[in-house]
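Researcher: We're teaching a course module on how sequence relates to structure. For the next exercise, students receive a sequence and then see the predicted structure as tokens, so they can try to spot secondary structure elements on their own. Here is the exercise chain.
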Amino acid sequence: MPRKSSLSERTSPWYAEVTGYQWLVLIIASLGWIFDVYEGQIFVACMTEAMPELLPDETAPDQIDFYNKVIFAAFLAGGALGGVVFGVLSDRIGRVRTLSYTILMYSAFTCLSALANTWWQMALLRFLVAIGVGGEWAVASAMVAEVFPQRARAWSLAIFHGSSVLGSYLAIAAGVFVIGNPNIGWRWGFAIGVLPALLIFWIRRGLREPESWQAAQAHSASSTNGELGRLSALFRPPELPRMLVGVGLATIGLATFWGVHVYGKNLMRDARQSEIVAHLPADATSDEVEQIVAANASSLKNWEMLGMFLVTTGGGIGLVSFGPICESMGRRGAFLFFHIGGLVTALFVFQTLTGSSIPVLIAVLPVFGFLTLGMHAGYSVYFPELFPTKLRGTGTGFCFNFGRILAAPILIVVGWLQRDQDYSVADAASLLSLLFILGAVLLLAAPETRGKRLPD
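Model: And here is the predicted structure for the students to work with:
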């Protein structure tokens, strides 16, 4: 049963009882997640420049987008592996040490991505980056959930996941000042990804294992059936139905993120390119159009990054808003709100706003970002609440990252539809947005955890 709150709790702000150490945990976990997101988004920021260089010169634009989706799929698969492996490891050896390993891994392989010379090398390196990326989220979200008091848990985890917007901002800044600078180039956007490794020193000096994990470890040592991080336990009741709900929600969120949300930024670039082409003489040849577009490549990159900024800003507000929304409407109600909103705005944007004017896009893209990304904070809030301490890292990591495995082939199929069946980017994104309907139906089987203590 939900614990009844006292009068003082109802009248005081949610952060009233949060200690300095708990804030430190949130700050360090958020920094790890910020850089985690940068490592993921830096490819999104530079794929327009990088992929033509990594593919043969005769590769057509629709084929280039197919390889983009293959690399997205490789990233999702690597994240799935990392989330499961490091999630189990965090339950067995502790949150602090495992968090350090994940950050070291994604920093090192992002830096090495600067040396890629072919598309398959980039795909392999993105796979290795994602192993660390997937692991970091699982470990950090479990640790924040365990350290913060019950009343502040949803707020703190929404802030944690919402901090990802700063990672996207860093990728946008790299897109404008590094990738878009012809004197620097896209490879340096990856090279600077080694810097988050410095965060490891702060983690090892400033953090200690959560008391709940220490208690679970002590119980495991004295019990014959209390083994920490036993993956097989997720496939038996009572964990199995909760795990299936988590995996389903994550699959929908990740497939729509990489196939719907990230393409919102392209509309701004396309709108500006249409304005440039509209001022050309009516008898301009296709070669002349290509030359004019190429001559404006740097300017168009800035417009693309503006689109990414607008979508990211709206998405960041959506992530932070998930905390208060789920405290008001419940976890299931908040997920339903964002799934229905994501469906409506995605179809509106890709079916009616393609080719729209720039002022219209400036107004709509933040709303699009808000409603297609906000539910992702729910994974940080909700998944740790589904599992007991001895399985929290394992269950949280498995749900989010097995969702990556299932999302990867979805993206490849959609990429095939674009390459071989002449689907436009807008039509492919619209098709993928229908997954939000499945997410709304899945909530019928989801348990409500608002106001409940974390399972022991």
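Model: If you want an answer key for the exercise: The mean pLDDT is 87. The first helix runs from residue 7 to 11.
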